[in-house]
Amino acid sequence: MKKRIGIIGGGQLGLMIAQEAHRLDASVVVMDPSADAPAFAEADAKIVGAFDDLKALERLGESSDVITYEFENIPGEVLRHIESKYDIPQGIAPLFDSQDRLREKDNARLHGLPTPEYAALPVRMGALAASAAEPMTEEEAAALSPQERLVQLASAVGRMGKPCVLKTRKFGYDGHGQAVIRDFKDIEKAADLLAVPCILEEMVDFDFEASVIMVSDGQDIIHFPLARNVHRDGILDLSIVPASGLQRNGEENGTCRRIVSACESFMRSCGYRGILAIELFIKGDDFLFNEMAPRPHNSGHYTIEGCTTSQYRELCHFLLGMPLTRPELVAPTVMKNILGQDLDAAKRIVAESLRGAGPGIEVSSPEDVDNAFCGEAGRGVFVHLYGKTQSRPRRKMGHVTFVPMTPEKYYSEWASRFV
Fold this sequence. Notes:
alpha+beta; Rossmann fold; Dna Ligase, domain 1; D-amino Acid Aminotransferase, Chain A, domain 1; 4 domains
């Protein structure tokens, strides 16, 4: 009998987990609040329900042998109710730790990863100048007046120095729930964020961002080649592998080995299992923890075609109790994120490749390309469109992986297609 994997979340990550699970002869049950969630197209069974719907989660548990999750913003409190009843191999600890930026940073420091300077806001009045000031609860933060928020933020920025970044502790992603503070007028605009618990972080002067994606079965840890990440307007635009600055003659250099060793040590020390992605700021030979995600990561999409095994396959290996496989890079690779504003360009690439290809697949225009296209559009150009029914700017609609591809060749031959 096929083993059944339950996935909480039906977005593109759930879709790609499900595709890989089917290649390994497992069946998939997906739960998501949206009836048109992308992963439902690949699921053997679907459950439409809110992430805090305990009955829907129990239906998923009863229909699955193992359960995983594809994004962080699932109420950890609800998962506690099902953790003891059903098999969640990763557990909920990494999910819980990643859901609050303050807890996440405290945890990173506790387990050996250096972080930027940070401070919780707002804090209980009377302890504003104390280094151990106690953070306010959500209810206390919501009750602050606009003037109190401004005073708290101005005082904290004065201690930390400018520039710095104010972030909500929960639910922020892709630049949402964040404000960069460079001068006083930025403080005035950002103070409204203190209606909820926040974290103030120093602005880090870094050379580039890199991500480390690991999978642990509790004994061994494998890691994928580190990607150099390029952002545009706060959202990942490109992942480039190998990451210049972390490789030498095709091998990981000393800085890269120190990063991997520190991240693996962190994962072991925390007792995490399954998949974990850690984003880091790199400055010369130094690195700082930015954030983590206990799920497949956008910067790891390149592994599908760029490596001998993918982040999705190794997560499924872990979930199914199969041995992990150590990945190797097939060739230099560039992954381009496709946002709503890039979708037409991606469809044009597919249309140009398939035009005149033969009966049944001839494509005359980008409008003929299915939003759920997945395949090779020209040699070494792999297009993945996620099948989302609504396209809008800044929404992740797909990705394109170029293998083999150097950054120089990408910028000279392809970058202009996505302007």
